[in-house]
Write a structure and sequence with these properties.
Layout lengths: L1 H43 L12 E4 L2 E6 L2 H13 L4 E6 L6 H15 L3 E7 L8 H5 L6 E5 L18 E4 L3 E5 L5 H5 L1 E2 L2 E5 L3 H14 L20 E6 L7 H12 L3 E6 L6 H12 L3 E7 L5 H8 L2 H6 L3 E5 L3 E2 L2 E5 L3 E5 L5 H5 L3 E7 L1 H15 L2 E4 L1 H5 L3 H10 L7
Parallel strand pairs: 3-4, 4-5, 8-14, 11-12, 12-13
Antiparallel strand pairs: 1-2, 2-9, 3-6, 6-7, 7-9, 10-17, 11-15, 13-18, 15-16, 16-17
Helix pairs in contact: 7-8
Length: 414
């Protein structure tokens, strides 16, 4: 009898193992099929103009903050700053394409180095695997470079995080931070948000770069011996997610700000895959009478992230959270504004990869003028959206519902 039970258990484990393997293979095939469909659709899609908000410098306790919502505008401002550099340039990006815009930045950095300016450049190798190697081989030796390794050590979890940051500082007086990667598509085809800071607050961004550089020592790379003096109570604050030391303050920043909200919470995010605590915080805010709105792309550049994100829509809509789908372009912003007082602009998405995995940087500003500007940006973006109602979402196809459920086990990986 015992032998029969053992045989039955053994057969059960084999069947369970085969079922698990089959489900995993089907999920992988679904991901591949969705990606191929996305690629074919992308070839047929035409770029469409979208509304933008004119950049305006805003005084924030002595610092000047300018918010950009169009790639060409911020890229021009960044190149202008690099061309005016006299002492040093710290440049860091997640994606650095080898196209016309990428070459433009490479040339500007090379010109600065030729003038005797200390130039340091960082990019993420994994994010740029599709970029021809000759583009990076063309970076002059006068530029100090640090490509973040594409494949970290498997046995060292602290090395797993991708460098998802996008920042630039020049001479300790001008700094840029936000969602824009470097490439021609991002100059005209994507709706993103970047901020320029002029003044003492740049020291916060500069320190973030120096710490990252020095945290990854190498025999072929010198440390940056740069003593950045920072204020104890800066007008603009910088929060950094740092996998190497397992510190992730950006998630806490969001949770704290959401908990303080009494009027409205307006979020714009490329990839919305929040954890349970973030969902609960937003739901509690609605119960307090807070107007919670979220803008996400109708279709992002990552089809799997879209399907995983849609799995949250029913719960969010039932909670009274309003969802808006951005039309005709990829909205890649990582921003929020709350109660006409608080705003954040940065590189972190509302997903696990950004909040608990990648190197990220977010600017936090408590200022009514900046918040008013960010509200105008949000409303401009909202004018290019379609709102999703709970009834309409409930009527989506059975295939769509099944796909969301089938892929839901992948959420912890995003």
């Amino acid at each position: 009898m015992l032998a029969g039970m053992r045989d039955a258990l053994a057969r059960g484990r084999v069947i369970l193992g085969r079922l698990t393997t089959a489900v995993l293979l089907l999920q992988i095939l679904s991901v591949v099929a969705l990606s191929l469909k996305k690629k074919l659709r992308k070839k047929k899609r035409k770029l469409r103009k979208f509304p933008i908000t004119k950049p305006e410098p805003i005084d924030v306790s002595g610092d000047e903050v300018t918010v950009y919502t169009y790639g060409e505008h911020v890229f021009d401002a960044m190149i202008e700053a690099i061309d005016a550099a006299e002492d040093h340039v710290f440049f860091e990006t997640y994606i650095w394409k080898g196209d016309a815009e990428g070459l433009r930045f490479r040339s500007a950095l090379a010109r600065a180095a030729d003038r005797g300016v200390r130039v340091h450049a960082v990019w993420d190798e994994f994010a740029n695997l599709v970029v021809p190697r000759k583009f990076y081989r063309g970076i002059p030796a006068t530029i100090n470079t640090m490509p973040h390794p594409a494949f970290p050590l498997p046995w060292s979890p602290r090395s797993w995080g991708r460098d998802h940051r996008k920042l630039l500082t020049v001479d300790g007086r001008i700094g840029f931070i936000g969602g824009y990667n470097i490439g021609s598509l991002y100059a005209t085809g994507w709706r993103d948000t970047h901020a320029r800071v002029v003044g003492d607050g740049v020291a916060e961004l500069e320190n973030a770069f120096v710490d990252f550089w020095n945290m990854h020592p190498s025999k072929v790379r010198d440390r940056i011996e740069h003593d950045t003096q920072r204020e104890w109570e800066p007008s603009v604050r910088v929060h950094r997610n740092t996998p190497r030391i397992q510190v992730y303050p950006i998630r806490n920043m969001y949770l704290e700000a959401i908990d303080r909200a009494s009027q409205h919470i307006w979020l714009t995010h490329a990839y919305l895959i929040p954890d349970d605590d973030l969902v609960a915080a937003l739901r509690d805010a609605v119960r307090r009478g807070v107007d919670v709105r979220i803008i996400v792309p109708a279709r992002s550049n990552h089809v799997v992230a879209d399907w995983l994100s849609r799995g949250f829509y029913s719960e969010l809509l039932r909670s009274g959270i309003r969802l808006f789908l951005y039309q005709g372009a990829m909205v890649h912003s990582k921003t929020a504004t709350i109660d006409g007082r608080w705003s954040t602009i940065g590189t972190a998405n509302l997903d696990r990869l950004s909040l608990l995995g990648n190197y990220e940087v977010n600017l936090e500003i408590t200022d009514e003028d900046v918040a008013a500007y960010m509200e105008s940006v949000f409303l401009t973006d909202e004018s290019n959206c379609i709102e999703v109602s709970e009834d309409r979402w409930r009527e989506r196809s059975i295939v769509a519902k099944g796909t969301e459920l089938f892929l839901s086990p992948w959420r912890p990986l995003f």
